[in-house]
Amino acid sequence: MYEGPVQDLIDELGRLPGVGPKSAQRIAFHLLATEPADIERLQNALQKVKEGVVFCDVCGNVSAETTCRICRDPKRDLALVCVVEEPKDVQAIERTREFKGRYHVLGGALDPLSGVGPDQLRIRQLLNRIGTATNGIDISEVIIATDPNTEGEATATYLVRMLRDFPGLTVTRLASGLPMGGDLEFADELTLGRALSGRRSM
């Protein structure tokens, strides 16, 4: 539609997740009108993402150092590990302020159609963590917090199969059900069924 660098920028922005053609066009023209100093700050931030971000050696979360702040925190419960798909999921759980353990980031979910198998995920590292005590403390519970979709469920099922032979290890899955403020009549059958099967006493 446009010529030269503007169209190239729109094309590259349109490849980002959640950015459609119209959004890409708006961002491109916003950047055209932006001061050079602001563009330079954006360029520097993009460069640092590739050069300055490392992944935690312990959990696989994004970090500024070889061990992330959560794994370095001595107040965290070493016996409790929450398994998530991506680093963004760590932040989602942290916002609840309910979880006091540590994390393990898989780096995705099983998706054979896209060529993502167990070897492409950090499953072996998880098994090694469970089999090794940290500061004399063994992991006693693994919470599987993969997404409630086809890939996430397949990953959770695979992990349960891999973890069930560890003696004394409890494996749990995040409950799923009705959102707060929702109406029963608008809930789909799968969500409502899970809410029923995951009900708790009051």
TrEMBL record:
The answer to whether keyword DNA repair applies is: yes
Tell me yes or no: is Zinc-finger among this UniProt entry's keywords. yes
What Pfam families does the database record attribute to this sequence?
Answer: RecR_C, RecR_HhH, RecR_ZnF, Toprim_4
The biological processes this protein is annotated with in GO are: DNA recombination; DNA repair
Zn finger intervals (C4-type): 56-71
Ordered alphabetically, the record's keywords are:
DNA damage, DNA recombination, DNA repair, Metal-binding, Zinc, Zinc-finger
Q: Supply the SMART domains for this chain.
A: TOPRIM
Q: Which InterPro entries match?
A: DNA_Rcmb_RecR, Rcmb_RecR, Rcmb_RecR_Znf, TOPRIM_dom, TOPRIM_RecR
> Where does the Toprim domain lie?
79-179
Q: Which domain of life is it from?
A: Bacteria
One annotated GO molecular function is:
zinc ion binding
UniProt cross-references to HAMAP family, sorted A to Z: RecR (MF_00017)
Which purpose does this protein serve, as stated in its record?
May play a role in DNA repair. It seems to be involved in an RecBC-independent recombinational process of DNA repair. It may act with RecF and RecO.
Entry similarity comment: Belongs to the RecR family.
What's the protein name?
Recombination protein RecR
Q: Name the species this protein comes from.
A: Lentzea alba
